[in-house]
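User: quick one, fold this
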Amino acid sequence: MRKWASLQPCVAKIEHDLVHGEKRWAPMPFGRPISYIGTVMKLAPRLLGWTLSVALTACSCSGPLSPSPTQVPDSGSLAGPSDAGEGAEDAASQVPVDAGVASVSDVGPSDLGGQQGASDLGSSPSDSGVGAMPSRCEIREYTMRCQQRTERLRTGHTGLVPREVHWQMPLGNPPADGWPVAILFQGSLFTAETFWRVLDSSILGMWNQGLLTKTLLDSGFAVITPEAHAQGFTAWDTNIPPVSLAWRTAPDHAFMMDIFDAIDDGDFGPLDRSRMYAAGISSGGYMSSRMAKEYPHRFRAIAIASASYATCAGPVCSVPDDLPADHLPTLFLHGGADSIVPISTARRYYRALRDLGVDTSFIVEEGTGHAWIDASPQEILSWFRKH
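Assistant:
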């Protein structure tokens, strides 16, 4: 009960923001009753999502709210008990560590510079990531909040569908060519605002999701988080037939083209269009793979958490045999106990890329389910800097 009582101020603030903070939509021209309907339609999915988040957080309060860091095992154990069939023989024979696979302990401070050093990221006040000051993000006992801006795009094939894009630039002066930028995609049923406002919950590794935003901003990366359909409380189109098989007809393709146009036009601040990256979890992880499949000229590298190839969905997954040899460098992060997206599906994608000679890495956190693993913020930062 003490933990729940500590959450009440945050819940009250969320309720206040939902009721009083929504000033962005334009008045509707058809009279007050229609305006009220529009307001209710806008707030309903957010109220539902935040209610779900708070309820799940309350359910998780029986144990420590902040899961203790889990040491990622030596990644030679890529095949684990959760993998039936493919890869099981690897565990039995204890094969050597795959090339390109690393555990958390394998990544040290020297790896964070990669091919481009911290000096290339502008005069951001901090380059050390989590815990650095000053920051656009504030961490309290059970909450984390990062300053964000929101742009509403009229998109879709009609150009009339409103979709929100949340974004922010680092503190400080941008580099001459603009800030490098990371586009982050949320998982199903959770708004993209959970990249910016987070309760300390183990559900989907939400705290690590917030830390990812903070780490990138503190380290000199602009962050853009588009909303999926219905204010984010649905899923991305990338693996939903029939548009998954005819991507140019997908509403999310039109949305991405409008986001790219907005980036080109400077609507999200001074950004370096030659240094764009993508990452996401679950449905957002599949969407990150879609970026490599459809818009490789736009991005330098991607990171996929708890997901696999763009058209896969949970255990139903077929990785094409004809992946391009110039596929974007891809980092995989997966919980060894993921029962929603079996780790074997991500491993299949990883091995296909490795066999092509693509720069790829696979990080496993044993005992973690369908969630951002603890290593995610620093590993993704390192991967983006490397490329």
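User: anything notable?
Assistant: Residues 68-386 form a domain with the Rossmann fold fold (CATH 3.40.50.1820).
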